[in-house]
Each structure stands twice: as structure tokens, then as C-alpha cells.
Amino acid sequence: MSLLPKATLYIQLRAHELSVLHVESGHEFRDVPQLAIQQQAGGKPQILAVGTPAYQCVHQPGVHLVNGFDHPRTILADFAYAEKTLISFVRQAWPRSLFQPRPEVILHPLERLEGGLTAIEIRALCELAVTAGARRAMVWTGIPLTREQLLSQHFPLELGHLFRP
């Protein structure tokens, strides 16, 4: 048995809101998945702000807002921008340090699921979580899970589906 704190993050994905729950502590936060991007002279975009603070940067010259989770047909619109957003959200929920394990992440898309998720979408979501710092990633589709279900790792499979790549 490890003496290190366990980290499980349950992330609910919506086009205009991400919710991150640190399951063990119960700490939860929500914010919009917006990035304020400014194009640099060398061509590489610089992220100025993430979430609600991004709206305050929009009046600066050369700044525009992007949302990697807002597409008419799927929850994942732009992998690179979604990755930057999720990295920021995961760091807020579970700041990295030398002695902390990487978190286990359960992604739960709540919108744009008509017809179900394709294998490619599931893989992209899992890769997104891993690049954001997850030790292991899973995708849940179904009813929203309670903290108690997450703590006991009881997923009501009659009311949803758990994808473990």
C-alpha cells in the first residue's frame, strides 16, 4: 500500500463549461474552456489566459479567444487547444510536485453524444487526458457519477459505459 496521496480527477466536459472534481478531497471547480491566444511575431501563439480570465484579454491587440471543446458535432473541436486547456485545469486540481503521483482521470463528455462516441473519439479523449498529466485515463458515458460512486469505483454499467483503453 502506498503512503502517497491518491489522486482521481473526474472531469465533466461540456462545450462551454468544464467541471473538475478531485474525488478524494471533494474539491471541485468549474470554468469555461476558453483560451486567450496572441499570435507572436515568430508565428507561435502565446496563451495569455485560461478560463474566465481569458475574456479580459480579448481587447488587447492581436488577441482572440479559442475553445478546443466547441464544435457542432463533437465535444473535441481542436486537440491542441483542448490539450492546453485541460493541462491548465488538471494543474489547478492537482498541482504537480516531486512526491505526488500523477492523477487517474475519468473524462465524462456530457454533450454532443448523438450516436455515441467513436473509437477515435474515445482514444483522442484518453490521449488528451494523458498529455494533460494523467497516469491513466478512462471515458465514462452515461449518468453523472456521484463522489461516492467514484470513491468506491462503482460505475453503474446499466446506466452508462466505461471505456478503458
Structural class by helix and strand composition:
alpha+beta
Rg, rounded, reads 16 Å
What ranges have pLDDT less than 50 throughout 5 or more consecutive residues? none
| Percent in strands | 25-35%
Main sheet overview: 6 strands, mixed
Percent range for helical residues? 10-25%
Total DSSP E strands: 9
Categorize the overall geometry: globular
How would you describe this structure to a colleague?
The protein has helices at residues 54-57, 79-93, 119-131, 147-152; strands at residues 8-14, 17-22, 28-31, 35-39, 45-50, 63-66, 104-109, 136-142, 160-163. The chain is an alpha+beta fold and 165 residues long. A hairpin with a 2-residue loop joins strand 1 (8-14) and strand 2. The two termini are 25 Å apart. The mean pLDDT is 89.
Provide a quick synopsis of the model.
By secondary structure, the protein is an alpha+beta fold. Helices cover 23% and strands 30% of the residues.
Features:
alpha+beta; 165 residues; globular; 9 strands
